[in-house]
Amino acid sequence: VEASIPEPQRQAWLKHQITGFEDKDDFEKQVVRHVETTLARSMFNCDETAAYAATSLAFRDRLVIEWNRTQQRQTFADSKRVYYLSLEFLMGRALDNAMLNIGLKDVAQSGLSDLGFRVEDIIQQEHDAALGNGGLGRLAACFLDSLASLNYPAWGYGLRYRYGIFKQEIIDGYQVEVPDYWLDFNPWEFPRHDVTVDIQFYGSVNKTTDDTGKITAHWEGGDTVRAVAYDVPIPGFATPSTNNLRLWSSKAASGEFDFQKFNNGDYESSVGDQQRAETISAVLYPNDNLDRGKELRLKQQYFWVAASLYDIVRRFKKTKRAWREFPDQVAIQLNDTHPTLAIVELQRILIDLEGLDWDDAWSIVQKTFGYTNHTVLPEALEKWSVGLFQHLLPRHLQIIYDINMYFLQFVERSFPQDRDMLRRVSIIEESQPKMVRMAYLAIVGSHKVNGVAELHSDLIRTTIFKDFVAIYGPDKFVNVTNGITPRRWLHQANPGLSDLIASKAGGSEHFLKDLTLLNKIELSVDDPAFRKEWAAIKLANKTRLADYIKATTGVEVSPKALFDVQVKRIHEYKRQQMNIFGVIHRYLTLKAQTPAERKKAQPRVNIFGGKAAPGYWMAKQIIHLINSVGAVVNNDPDIGDALKVIFLEDYNVSKAEMIIPASDLSEHISTAGTEASGTSNMKFVLNGGLIIGTCDGANIEITREIGEENIFLFGNLAEDVDDLRHNHTYGGDHKVDASLQKVFAAIESGTFGSAQDFSGMITAVRDHGDFYLVSDDFHSYLETQDLVDKVYADQETWVTKCITSVARMGFFSSDRCINEYAEEIWNIEPLKPESAAGISKGE
Ligand code: GL2
Hints:
Elements: H1 7-15, H2 24-38, H3 48-77, E1 81-85, E2 89-92, H4 95-102, H5 105-114, H6 119-124, E3 129-131, H7 135-149, E4 154-159, E5 167-171, E6 174-178, E7 190-201, E8 204-209, E9 215-220, E10 223-235, E11 242-252, H8 259-263, H9 267-270, H10 272-279, H11 295-318, H12 326-329, E12 330-335, H13 341-353, H14 358-368, E13 369-372, E14 383-385, H15 386-392, H16 394-414, H17 419-425, E15 428-429, E16 435-437, H18 438-444, E17 448-451, H19 454-462, H20 466-472, E18 477-479, H21 486-492, H22 495-504, H23 528-553, E19 562-567, H24 576-592, H25 595-600, E20 604-609, H26 617-633, E21 643-648, H27 653-659, E22 665-668, H28 680-686, E23 690-693, H29 699-706, E24 712-713, H30 718-730, H31 738-748, H32 759-766, H33 774-793, H34 795-807, H35 814-826
Parallel strand pairs: 1-4, 1-12, 4-11, 12-13, 13-17, 17-18, 19-20, 19-22, 20-21, 22-23, 23-24
Antiparallel strand pairs: 2-3, 5-6, 7-10, 8-9, 10-11, 14-16, 15-16
The chain binds ligand GL2.
Ligand GL2 is lined by residues 133-136, 139, 288-289, 374-375, 380, 452, 482, 675-679, 697.
């Protein structure tokens, strides 16, 4: 490519190589330039919003230069790339992250200060990019950070939703959803109006036979919608590598509105096509761990998958390689079953458009894809009705039927004696109506399937995918325990702690790239000066959160109290109801005490946060109860500082960055066997908080790493859950724990407002089988909370546990996790830039 440009032209281009700012003076110059020219403002009307915009643009300039170089480097190297397909990327804010990953936050800080701004205030101006629901979407964002930081040639592919996850307001104790229009000003995306793909829907299939007898299918007619690419640069930490996240936006293929209709006075339908097309990428579905089977969702999935595959195939075809080399150049990871149609789409491209034989094509497909399962909850496993498929994607349905036929023939040959096996593993569920089981399709079309924590990977092998292990053998099913990026979740969220750790872990930020170096701080666990600093940092983080609580809720909490935090999506399986029942129990106990006894009690602040899916009635009831308990407890003069109950509105990534470093104790108390991994559990421990939790998800591996003396585990084990559930329903009368009954009695007597408002939560436990085993675990939960109080009273012991735990958290870096994917599943190598030694002071 380079050679095709004549020498004089080349020289002219090279003479004017653009560089980003390097020092404070340069930074200020760039900010002033952007304020005055890009924003058309001046020092007289540069408010914080404008200062944020100009600062972002100055950093963006730097990023874009490295981003272009990285893409060129990857193109020239022509080595294998990984494509991470995810319907959710919960990125949060970009500016702070860019400053830190590039290593120029201190430059920005002093530059902004010269210009009259505080860097913290400027960072706060940014709207979160909230294109995800919870853990699954945030995991994808952590992965992008690690992929870039480790110099892997990688692209993310997702949808550019006009509305991300809704904004939550709490009004009179109830959740109210407000649209999140976040694209007003977004300096981090680059529209690529020249990169478009036309995507087909509906229509019909015709088959033709050529002279040789070969049959070809033609998918014809139907609607077309245009996908437009928007690119987001993803900076690596302490490396120039800057990867690309490509998000697709939908618009009408024609681009113009219908003048005929307009002239005839039919104003509304003249823009109808446009609006219908734009609807596809308009909103993120706000359900976490729940599949609702809506047609528009399937349209979103195909739209995104087809555009992404077109792009990937186009890039591959430029290299002029033979098709069989495709899997040597391309690895595609399916983040959950949402992109499973990519398997069918690639098969369609290869056989219908490129003319490959079925078997050759299928072998390429299987080698290309890997599938990550993120849940065993049956209500979250995607199924689409055959009728819907037939209507929306008729050719894909045919291909699915063929995939299934070949698969079932293979199964029948291997298990001729097990007739029922075919029914159990068929991609088509013979129900009324018939359904396509997306997880089964994903397994059949991939070469590796992974769970996200050890227990979870064991569970999928022994329960939901058991038959497939028998069919394919155990090697296809692997575990890759989730991880988190220490850049955002320690360095950015908790700079005080990050600096203190750096001073003990070799004196540099290198531990942020090799998190196992955290173990160095264990040598300082008895150092009084270190411990003092440690405690001071935690107190400062708690004070900051206390100020925020005061400012947003009006409630005054003491930073000296034990901060007990449960922040995550509201879900019955995550058991926020058990937590609030425990809080009510504590309140009743305190009320029954004398003032002298109450004075001796360990003061606690119970902090909750999290969104309920708009249609999840029980989750909304839980939010309402938490707020109602808060309203009573926080205003009860008998109680004072002994107990406060706070619900923080609109939990999101940027709030997590403030809340997590301020916790003493966090709750990860799902019914055993239900939480695939959890990732905030890792974030809390990394920030020097302890966990109260069940033997579930990654809690188990956290325990193994940090030692069981450093975690408060309680409750029944996953292996006992089925029997317990069975007993609730069939084992005679289901006995509700006595202290829980007292809690119910208090609610039912109207202590927290109208008893009726909360009756669903009570009957679920008492009368409807207590599916989530709240009653079974309640006693052990309360006992363990008492133990927490006792240990916390001895601050020396507590701090020792915290330091020791942090020291042993190295395993949970998403870098370790990504390296495992790269080796076990993708078979890709990093592509180091020549100057990988770094542009950050850390390296
Ligand atoms: C989830 C799991 O519930 C959660 O335990 C896990 O940590 C994440 C990431 O692997 O995936 N699965 C899921 O559907 N959502 C999750 O957060 N939404």
